[in-house]
Please model this.
Amino acid sequence: MRKMTHFVNMPTQVSGARRLVAALAEMEIQVVFGVPGDTGIAFYDQLAAATDVIRHVLTRDERHAAYMPDGYARSTGRLAACEASSGAGAVYLASGLAEAYASSVMGPTVLLPTSSSTRTGMMRAHRVTRLTWGAQNRVQKGTM
Model:
């Protein structure tokens, strides 16, 4: 097992994202499948710092990410994870989990629905989204 040297001496106050990535490394998960979203920014920041141990595979959408850990586990015998943003992204993970469970040879799978840490953070993210959509509408109408 490869050690994550930057997680060995954790400070007393550590973010949930950092603890999550450290836990994935302790479980010897080497691959996380998913699509970065606004609610998982902290997780992806910590995952980027751990590229020597955990590799991220970008998928087309959350539904595809949900099927990949099962296939990876079946073909390699190793535990894998998939990540999706909270809300609809997490719901999309259900189909892959149901398929893996329904087949008789379900590989070990870890599902990670990420969420923002505070309501304020979510409100800020949605405000940025509204501003982006507003700018897009003005471009489409030719008023910008």
